[in-house]
Amino acid sequence: MSVWHGWSIRTRLTVVSGVVMALLCTIASVFILMAVRGSATDYRQQQLVADAVRVVQELRRKGPPTSIPDPGEAAIQLYNPVGTLVAATADVKGGPPLGDFGTPDIDTYAIRHVCDMPSFPGECRMVLAFPIDLANGVWWLYAANPEVPWYVSGPLLGSLAGGSLLLVLLTALGAYRTVGTTLAPVDAITDKLAKITSSDLSQRVPVPHFHDELRRLAVTANQTLDRAESAVDRQRRFASDASHDLRSPLTAMRAEVEEAMLHPDETDWQETGKALLESLDRLQNLVTDLLQIARLDAGAPGRNDPVDLSELVTGELDRRTRKVTVNRRLTPGVVIRGDRLRLARLLTNLLDNAERHAEHEVTLVVERQGNTAVMEVVDDGGGVPPEQREVVFQRFARLDAARNRDAGGTGLGLPIARQIAETHGGSLTLEDSPKGARFVLRIPLPG
């Protein structure tokens, strides 16, 4: 079994096809031998009867013969009515009667298959007992022919064996070549995949010409490589941006500490502590966002509880310290299913972004539109140009206006909010507004 497992698919299929063809040839040969042997046996029986009839005709025309000329393979004996041997072939002239298997019916001849007769020890023969009704009584003619062997004849057996061997070899060769041709694209795909490394995901496997399973395999492999390359590129950009954003607060903290250590007597340690705390807050916020991004990317499942959006918004607004005026237009009873904590994080990120850019007020709307729950967060700030509306959802992407207003942002709030919306089967988009930015969340209502 271990040897079989070590064989290639081509070898295994070749062996299997050869074995199957050998079995089919064996079965066909057996049926052919049985059919030919049956025909040969019938022919020998007919020949035996014909030889007997020839002797009977000679007996009726010329009288009792003294010898039996040219009997071929048959051994013949002729007995008169009193049981005396009158004539016989040389091989049974002095032996007992060939038809010594009981008294046959005198109205017809009888053929028996007899083995180990005294005249032919160790052999099996077909024996004919033929009654001849003459004027002086019933004469008996006995004739025996050799049985047809199971293989009928050596040339026939050799032909069948040779033909079967040739068919098995041709089948095995054809299977080997066919499987090799069929698996050639697989070998090409395997060779190409072996050359692809994590540092170079730009290569793609060759796509076969025929529209079959192998073509679908190659197309699927290339699509997987596309996704892997995109994921690796995103991870590289993410790692680069994350390291840059992590380095900024650390650099600021180091500069503060080094400055204070150079002039310890002149340093206002309380102001230095406040500056360090601000950098620590930014670092903590960034780490928190990075952990949230990692959980979402890993596909960590969230809860699936009923959540009333209006109640969620009310609770979050009541506990927040307001920086601007927040207007509420909340429709009660808009219930979706999802993870309350993640939805609260989505809302918090949108509110933080809106308050950061608002001039005087933020408007928050919850309503039902058909089978969809809709939540809008609108600020009265400068807004986002249409060509940059998708840019704000990219990780670490911060527009110049955002950097000028709040240098401590992480650039991950809006990407996290969109990813949370998508994990709930919904969408988060930045849409047209008379003034400012209008973020619209849409989540299907449970059926």
What does this structure look like?
With 447 residues, the chain is of the alpha+beta class. Helix content is 51%, strand content 19%. The chain is built from nine helices and twelve strands. A five-stranded antiparallel sheet has the order 2-1-5-4-3, covered by helices on one side. Strand 11 (427-431) and strand 12 (438-444) form a beta hairpin. The chain crosses the membrane at residues 12-36.
Layout: helices, strands, pairs:
Layout: H1 2-6, H2 9-62, E1 75-79, E2 85-88, E3 110-117, E4 120-134, E5 137-146, H3 154-195, H4 213-262, H5 269-297, E6 305-308, H6 309-319, E7 325-330, E8 335-338, H7 340-357, E9 361-369, E10 372-379, H8 400-405, H9 413-423, E11 427-431, E12 438-444
Parallel strand pairs: 7-9
Antiparallel strand pairs: 1-2, 1-5, 3-4, 4-5, 6-8, 9-10, 10-12, 11-12
Features:
single chain; 447 residues; alpha+beta; 9 helices; histidine kinase; five-stranded antiparallel sheet; nucleotide-binding; HisK_dim/P_dom; 12 strands; five-stranded mixed sheet
Concise summary:
With 447 residues, the protein is an alpha+beta fold. It is built from nine helices and twelve strands. The protein is 51% helix and 19% strand.
